[in-house]
Amino acid sequence: MPRQSITFTSPNDLWLNAQVNSEEFSSKSEVVNDLIRKARAEQTHIDYVRARLKKAEDGGFTDLSAEDIRQEIRKELGLNV
């Protein structure tokens, strides 16, 4: 795994230390990698939502009811609700 050297502000360093001291993480690197994973997942979700909005904008109007649309989305997401 590539090594990097980064500098943190004092408040961020204190926060990182608190995360490690809470024993949820074993190192600052683990905390930073977890934050990056979460940010990447969030960005993936944002990109998905933007693509869906763009598709909807380009697709014009629909005759489906709001409930029909909700059911369609639930089906696409694999939710059995």
Automatic annotation (TrEMBL):
It comes from the Bacteria. One of its GO terms (biological process) is regulation of DNA-templated transcription. InterPro entries: ParD_sf, Ribbon_hlx_hlx. This is CopG family transcriptional regulator. It comes from Cryomorpha ignava.
